[in-house]
Prior knowledge:
This protein is mainly α. The chain is about 55% helix and about 10% strand. It is built from six helices and three strands. The longest helix has 27 residues, at about 100-125.
Amino acid sequence: MQTPSPDRAVVDPGEGCPMVAFVNLISGKWAIPILYRLIVEDCPVRFGELQRAAAPITQKELSRHLRLFERRGLVTRRVHAEVPPRVDYTVTDLGRTLKPTLDSLADWMRTHGETVAIFEMRSADHPE
C-alpha cells in the first residue's frame, strides 16, 4: 500500500497510532521550521520573511506548506486590500498549542544533536 503524500494525508486522530497522525499533521522537510517561526514570531509574518527564515525553501514549497497548514487550522492567511497586494500569515490558537512540543524537540536536539552527529560520522567511516 502506498503512503499518501504529506499534503494529501488525512489526519485522523481517532484511528491508528497518534504519532502517525501527528507526523502527518506536520510532515515535510520544511514544516517544523515554518511553523516554529510563526509560533515564535506570534504576529503576522509576510511570505518573503518566512521564505528567508526557511532558506533555501522554494516559493512553491513554502506556498504548499502554508496552504496545508491553513487547511488544517494551524495558520491563517490574510490578504490586505493594497496595491501591490500584501499577504501575511499568523499562527492560530490551535497552532500555538504545538509550541511546547516543538520546544521539546528543539531542546532534545540541543542536548543530543552532537551525539547523533558522532554516531553518523562513525557509521559513515564503517559502512556495512
